Amino acid sequence: MESRFTRGKSPLLERPLGRPRGEVSLSAFALLFCELVQYCQRRVYSVAELQSKLAQLGHQVGLRLLDPLVSRERGGRRETKVLSILLFVKGPVWRALFGKEADKLEQANDDDKTFYVIEREPLVNTFISVPRENSTLNCAAFTAGLVEAVLGASGFPAKVTAHWHKGTTLMIKFEEGVIARDKSLEGR
Amino acid sequence: NSELFTLTYGALVTQLCKDYENDEDVNKQLDKMGYNIGVRLIEDFLARSNVGRCHDFRETADVIAKIAFKMYLGITPSITNWSPGGDEFSLILENNPLVDFVELPDNHSTLIYSNLLCGVLRGALEMVQMAVDVKFVQDTLKGDSVTEIRMKFIRRIEDNLPAGEEITTQ
């Protein structure tokens, strides 16, 4: 196996996770994100593939964001209930990423596994215009991947997809086991 | 938010490393992507900062370090090491937001992780008629104490009027 690991050259792992040092401008992120989307676009042949590539990248980011966020916002205590992890995503996670809370959190009427996080103007879609032939493309697929990683790594495996609905909606569908576990917790 | 930015950049570099087999190609790709970003960034910069035309390379250097870097990345690099002819200088970055939380593994020791920045600077300056050569001289990821980018002025790009639109006097 090739050596992917550094031999502990830098003191990086000993650094405290503290508050992030500075803000980066919106344009800087938007330009970087646009370039990222264009790069992916050149390498795939369909919209679905592009969305899944974006989701993969979002996934990578989400995995790495979870630890610092949990340790900062919740003092290192992990959520154990579905509702509280969802509120965590809507509030602190969104605020840390985008500077504001998500607009709405809703539960599907007919299905207790499905929830919706609604955002009228998602940050990742600023400066991105979608041509008509790709009208199903939503770059919030990146955010969907991010949220999926956050939920999954917190012990709430789910599938998250992005849709055009009241702005942009992230549809979160938890796995069976998660809801069953949550119900049994409440029963106690 | 700077963490999101740093992690997104990290995801991009990781993806590039997977897609291309060797570091040289990744470096080139980062430079190209940076160039594309730079070309668009300069318009945004000029619109937001109201800075007039720079009269010489020194002024350009100041504007880049004190205004542009601050505006986009929230850091202010220092300018040093002017060459005697005044056409080359170094930007010293004490901390680079692109590399927070990043370590370079041994099998990617020739990767210039922040090469996107070189492309951005090159692309942006080309749009204001300056051809420059930008490269990293020191990199904290490789064990140096600071990150140093060397910028060299090559020439002023003449405006090339597209064929058929030359101004003729009758």
Automatic annotation (TrEMBL), chain A:
Q: Pfam families from the xrefs?
A: TRAPP
- Which GO biological process categories is it annotated with? endoplasmic reticulum to Golgi vesicle-mediated transport
The record's Gene3D superfamilies line, in alphabetical order, gives: Trafficking protein particle complex subunit 3
Q: What is its main location?
A: endoplasmic reticulum
What are the entry keywords? Endoplasmic reticulum, ER-Golgi transport, Golgi apparatus, Transport
Query: GO terms for CC?
Result: endoplasmic reticulum; TRAPPI protein complex; TRAPPII protein complex; TRAPPIII protein complex
Q: Where in the cell is it found?
A: Endoplasmic reticulum; Golgi apparatus, cis-Golgi network
* Highest taxon listed in the record's lineage: Eukaryota
Instruction: Describe the family membership recorded for this protein in Swiss-Prot or TrEMBL.
Output: Belongs to the TRAPP small subunits family. BET3 subfamily.
Function comment: May play a role in vesicular transport from endoplasmic reticulum to Golgi.
* The protein's assembly and partners: Part of the multisubunit TRAPP (transport protein particle) complex.
Name the record gives this protein? Trafficking protein particle complex subunit 5
Which gene specifies this protein's sequence? TRAPPC5
TrEMBL record, chain B:
One GO BP: Golgi vesicle transport
Xref: Pfam families: TRAPP
Q: Which InterPro entries match?
A: Bet3, NO_sig/Golgi_transp_ligand-bd, TRAPP_component
Provide this UniProt record's keywords sorted from A to Z. Endoplasmic reticulum, ER-Golgi transport, Golgi apparatus, Lipoprotein, Palmitate, Transport
Q: What does this protein do?
A: May play a role in vesicular transport from endoplasmic reticulum to Golgi.
Q: How does it assemble?
A: Homodimer.
Species of provenance: Chrysolophus pictus (Golden pheasant)
Recorded GO CC terms:
endoplasmic reticulum; Golgi apparatus; TRAPP complex
Q: What is this protein called?
A: Trafficking protein particle complex subunit
Superkingdom is: Eukaryota
Record keyword Kinase present: no
Subcellular location per UniProt equals:
Endoplasmic reticulum; Golgi apparatus, cis-Golgi network
Give the record's family classification: Belongs to the TRAPP small subunits family. BET3 subfamily.
